[in-house]
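fold-stage: in
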Amino acid sequence: MQGGLPAHGKVLATKAVLRHTFLMPSHVSLTINQISAAQTLALRQAVLWPEHPIEASKVEGDETALHFGGFLGGDLICVASLFQDGGQDGGGVRLRKFATDPAHQGKGFGSDMLVYLVAQAREAGASDFWFDARETALGFYERHGFTTKGERFFKKGLPYWRMSLALG
């Protein structure tokens, strides 16, 4: 893959324009485009931290991460951000602030986004793909092959688990 997620040590070094369209069984398509960090914030806040100010949806490293939006028609319904972060060889990719509009959850759009992101990381040579998952979402991620690591922990009073998938 040109641009995107180069291998080992510079997993997120460039910001290529990426676009992919998934056709759902009902012939509804989700188009995934690279977007800016600013474009992710409203949906991040509405889904993940609605009781907090929008600033709570920003994370350190947003300015250098790759951000993706899933569009249904012209509407942004899903966002996710990838950060170069970790792995024993420095080739790990961390997913953060993955959010799908509640009106579109359970329809496969979040799965399409996750499959797309993992494929991008794998094609670029990333060694592993990891994130902190809310306990309520464990089943979703387990269906995609992710496993829990370590012990349960809390963020802002909510239970989380570290999850990962080896890509090598």
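fold-stage: in (second)
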Amino acid sequence: MSKKISKIVFLIMVVVFMFTFNTTSNAATKKNVGDKTLYGIMGDVDGNKKINSSDGELILNYATGAKKLSVLQKLRADINGDGKVNSIDALEIINYIQNLVTAKKLSSITIVNNPSKTEYNVGDNLKTSGLKIKLNYSDSTTKEVTSGFTCSPTTLNTSGTQKITVSYTENSITKTTTFNVTVKAKTKSVTSVKINSSINEVEVGKKIQLTATVKPDDATNKNVTWSSNKTNVATVDSTGKLKGIAEGTTIIIATAADGSNVKGEIIITVKKPVYTGSLKVNDKLMLITDGWVVYKTETAAKNLDTSNTNGTLKKNDRIVVMEIKDNVIKIA
């Protein structure tokens, strides 16, 4: 009894499928290869969820009587919806496959606009705002997009010029292009500058070397620039060498060169030079080309008071020290 019932159920199912085949054949005229239906994907005769030449072969084999198709396969094979499965349906599948092969494909991508931000510090994350790329297709068409792409790397860990790779995928085809960003090393600013000098006085015409201690020890840029607020009193060069120019007081400044504007200062007093040689009153001098000498053993200071010589001094003249006061040697 159960076997008879099973046969009846099977016959009913066959009738239903045949009815569905006949009643939907007219509607199938609106279907295309690849359309999804209640009975599967149109053109996917073998039901493997792919449409390829094997589906066309099944139709041709069925049309020539070399192959049988199930009711569902016939429904999926009747592409043109005429209620028949023949070479016309196979041709529909062939055309579909050819269209896939010849359809436009993504051939390359190019940068239209770089991101708004292109300068970073080491450790920063990449910002892609403003980035626009152009999609170039095999049929010479193009499209510009501002999203849908990926960039690598996203964290910038190396200083210098870093290349960023942009990738875009469409229909399983991935194309790439690149742009550059500048990554700066992390900087440590100067917190203090101290001028090292136990000397705060210098004579006119004398020079002293100044140095500066910059903190912290691992500051990125430990250079300083030197300056004097009264260059008519004392000057200082780029190496910190100070020279007394005239009597007075000036402030010598060492400024951090890293842009932090941190400064160190020292007050320097410039005084008249003090004579420390061996000349004394009544010593006899002889004029030579490059200075004054006493018995050919000492070069005298050039700041001589020659008011008693009537301006007639010449080489090898004999003269006498009249007075030594405030480093001025009066002669006659």
